[in-house]
Amino acid sequence: MEQRGLGMLRLPGLLAALGMLVGQAALGMQRERTTPLSYWRDLNLWPLPLSVKTTPRLLYLSPGNFFFGHSPTSKAGPSCEVLQEAFRRYYDYIFGFYKWPLGSDKVPSAMELQKLEVSVIMNPQCDSFPNITSDESYNLLVKGPVATLTANRVWGVLRGLETFSQLIYQDSYGTFIANESNIVDSPRFPHRGILIDTSRHFLPVKTILKTLDAMAFNKFNVLHWHIVDDQSFPYQSTTFPELSNKGSYSLSHVYTPNDVRTVIEYAQLRGIRVLPEFDSPGHTASWGKGQKDVLTPCYHAREPSGTFGPINPILNSTYSFLSQLFKEISAVFPDEFIHLGGDEVNFDCWESNLAVQHFMRNKGFGKKIEKLESFYMQRVLDMISAMNKRSIVWQEVYDDEVKLTQGTVVQIWKMGNLRMKLSKVTAAGFPVIISAPWYLDVINYGEDWKQYYSVEPLRFAGTREQKQLVIGGEACLWGEYVDATNLTPRLWPRASAVGERLWSHQEVTDLEDAYRRLTRHRCRMVKRGIAAQPLFTGYCDHEGRI
Amino acid sequence: MAGSMLRFSLLLAAAFAGRATALWPWPQYIQTSELRYTIFPHSFQFQYHLSSAAQVGCSVLDEAFQRYRDLLFGSVALRFSHPIEKRHTSEKNSLMVLVVTPGCDQFPSLGSVENYTLTINDEQCLLLSETVWGALRGLETFSQLIWRSPEGTFYVNKTDIEDFPRFPHRGLLLDTSRHYLPLASILDTLDVMAYNKFNVFHWHLVDDSSFPYESFTFPDLTKKGSYNPATHIYTAQDVKEVIEYARLRGIRVLAEFDTPGHTLSWGPGVPGLLTPCYSGSHPSGTFGPVNPILNNTYEFMSTFFLEISTVFPDFYLHLGGDEVDFTCWKSNPDIQAFMKKKGFGDDFKKLESFYIQTLLDTVSAYGKGYVVWQEVFDNQVKVRPDTIIQVWREEIPVKYVKEMALVTRAGFRALLSAPWYLNHITYGPDWKEIYLVEPLAFEGSPEQKALVIGGEACMWGEYVDSTNLVPRLWPRAGAVAERLWSNKMVSNLDFAFKRLSHFRCELLRRGVQAQPLSVGYCDMEFEQT
Q1: Do A537 and B428 touch (CB under 8 A)?
Q2: Is A531 in the B-facing interface, judged by CB distances under 8 Å?
Q3: Whole-angstrom distance, CA of residue B197 vs CA of residue A423
Q4: Alpha-carbon distances, residue A531 vs A486, B42, B470 (angstroms)
Q5: Cα(A514)–Cα(A112) distance, rounded to whole angstroms?
Q6: What mean pLDDT value characterizes chain A?
Q7: How far is B520 from chain A (nearest CA, A)?
């Protein structure tokens, strides 16, 4: 097992040791399937846990005689909201979508599974927001009559509950069954994200919440919210209300502070971080409508052409505006990170502008317009540091040689020279997030999930330390051709392929087995109300209705 | 006739890019002005003209009136009392519908006349049509003419429309074998088809993957051939419901039972029907196409298609005939012997012909016409001269444009689908390519061109089920709809983009999960349930 991250991630040994002990005690007598990656053929787990040991022994569950509870020794109890909410959710996922069979509760108690007892070993973090270092590992011991789920923190419990729910199925008589099993699990990468774009098309809050549900089913833990862009500015700022008043598609196409809070809390309860992106200095056309002078006036033949380019980097007013805006954002979004964008800055407009030319000369930038970009990005990065937040930027910021403070995360999105780029950025000591192979908005006919699934994030030349700097990846669903009408089937189960790549062990790469499990996982999502599209010809017992 | 109208049509396209011209598909002739009439939802009525051949009790129109009332004013509470404005605009409180030829209970057919005229001026608000089918098309157009001011008032502009379809067969294919589509998905699709003036639902009911059609003569077909015989089937009642739902919208149901290939799911329910494939001198345990050398096969087909001919009222049946894989036939020694006996040599196309000819004769005897996929023509099966050939292959054996020329030169009527496989998806605004297809752009005489009766958008089901059908279909299929309805000259992409974007928002308003064409928004976005 590898642990990776920002140099501060270490699996507390306590849990690992405990898992081994419990596992041996419970299953020592059984004939086990114990190769490191063994799994029972009929298991439909997605993403596949680190270690699954399972026996053919069946345990029976009765909806009327099963409950989730806290272990007496758990550090978390009924006052832990994140767990209480999860218990109710998972009870519904397990039993609520089936017709309950009659008279199925007459099973010998030795074979009955009556309770899942949850035990949190360390300070549970019930009221915290998840963060990049959150411990998501868990041990799940499924035996009768009481199964146990042990984790260091609530985040591991959430992941373990999802796994537990995936273990339970119905036999042909409708009885709920689980195989006796022992699962030890933890993620391969700590940053497993989905990017949604609410600027090209507005996504109603309900759609975002649905996406968070599906993310939890796939053990994703970061919602990268590309909230504004050229096309519209739906984020309602309390400091600068005109930004969305003028910059949104319409006054009903906005996210109020309450909407944003709703998303953050909904995500928190599912162990998902909300990473806001306010992309600048490019991709900001919509900002100009509500904030005077924030964009650069473009020139044509020494006259203003009436069009505008990127944010104007030469005015003090720009930076005082940004500092107020980011101050608000850093208070509204609890995550440690803010995504600052920095991609695809179009230099033509800057170059055309007389005042910008003058500024370049004054600063001694010469003709190198990238230096102006650097100048801008550095000031914004410093701003964010001063607010005790950390920054994530798109790869151009690194490519254009902006001086980055240690710990700034670089997100790689360009396919060209991907491996070389990974080598370089990590050699320079910066943590990276990979998205390049996972642009899910780019669609093709056929089974393209296989291509996403077969990506190996660490396949680049570099030392062990360099590989450790890959903190994860993101599946990106840009919004040019996506809105609430087609988001869900376009995202799921294609993003699930990315989900497993980022969670499961590097060696979990068998396409046939993945197909078998993913087909069933997609039907499970459909049953849970997610309109996940089919992988190929076939059917689900419960077909979806949009 | 079309020539002089066309000039107006294009002129107006340029002159009125406003809301009154947000029609899809674009009518053959339209003249509209800025003069507008107010419509009050609580008092507005659809009414039969006194001299109309259709009157109250005409199921097709009674129900259509109800539907369009709901579509137009559904969300507006009827108690909504509107302040009476100054009378600088006059009010329209009814649309008079006048149908010339009686007939409300029949089914639409290939020959149905769908012409209509809409006249909205100071004197009248009149929808005139030859048949109820034309009235349906006109009601749809009328519903697209009505718009709402920001204050919520409904208006319709002074307008003259004279409209008729360019092609009589404007179809959409759904595949319910690769994935089962719940009945509701099919019915919803029929609704949206009507909004797009499509008039043929090509129902590719069964295929290799599953046999969801519940046959009363051979119940084992579904029992053993469906994905799940309790849930993933179409009962006789379901089929009836689809046919009637379609009829009420002026849509024909063209049922396809594809043979002799694409029939794996038939096998379990009818022992002996499929050809046993051989590996060396022994049966391999796998099966190929329908076994064409047994009398039993033809007896079965004869009984089965008798049922199908009765269940589906349309004059035409689709008999498939595509992609027959000869390897299994080749491997089977009984078939080899049969080939020798018949003097077919090594030409398995002759065996295919033999099968299909026998089948076609059977179906002809039931008083039905038929549509087949192009292979039947390519393989020179002798077919009746009134057979309709559906062209679906883009490049092989020849480019589809060439195939259209060949089919029509041989004197057969042709349907075009090759460029309209909507299950094929790519990144970006692929509707443009779909839209720019010109069905008659092949070398041929006017007589040949006249043999092109239309086309079909196809949504094959390998990767499509009820989770993604709707956004994948709409508004992309709309591009095909306009190509098949509107004048050939209506092909300006900017004009189409404006109208189609508007139409897709209208679809959202009507509850259809139609996906976006590009960046932007609709006043009423799709809301997750």
Answers
A1: no
A2: yes
A3: 57
A4: 9, 38, 12
A5: 30
A6: 91
A7: 6
Going by C-alpha positions, the residue among B454, B507, B506, B452 that lies closest to residue B483 is: B454
Residues in B closer than 8 angstroms to A485, CB to CB, are 470-471, 508, 513-516, 526
Which residues of B fall within a CB distance of 8 Å from A537?
Answer: 178-179, 209, 461-462
Give pLDDT, residue A98. Answer: 53
pLDDT digits (tens, 9 = 90+) for B446-463: 999 999 999 999 999 999
- β partners of residue B97: B48, B127
Average pLDDT over residues B350-358: 94
Label residue A14 by pLDDT band (50, 70, 90).
very low
User: CA A421 to CA A460: how far, in whole Å?
Assistant: 9
ipTM of the complex: 0.91
Beta carbons of B176 and B225 less than 8 angstroms apart? no
pLDDT category at A197 given cuts 50, 70, 90 is very high
**Residue B18: DSSP 8-state:** S
Q: Which amino acid is at B375?
A: E
Q: CB of B342 within 8 Å of any CB in chain A?
A: no
Inform me whether the pLDDT recorded for A191 exceeds 60: yes
Residue closest to A287 by CA, chosen among A240, A250, A328 = A240
Contacts of B211 (CB under 8 A, 6+ apart): B177, B221, B222, B225, B226, B265, B266, B269
Cross-chain Cβ contact B462/A543 below 8 Å: no
Residue B204 sits at the chain A interface (C-beta within 8 Å):
no
Alpha-carbon distance of B223 to B235, in angstroms, equals: 12
Paired with A422 in beta bridges are none
Does B519 contact A543 at a Cβ distance shorter than 8 Å? no
Is the pLDDT confidence value at A107 over 70?
A: no
CB A53 within 8 A of CB A34: yes
Q: Do A531 and B467 touch (CB under 8 A)?
A: yes
Whether A539 has its CB under 8 Å from any CB of chain B: the answer is yes
Interface test with B, best of A99, A203, A450, A533 (most B CBs within 10 A): A533
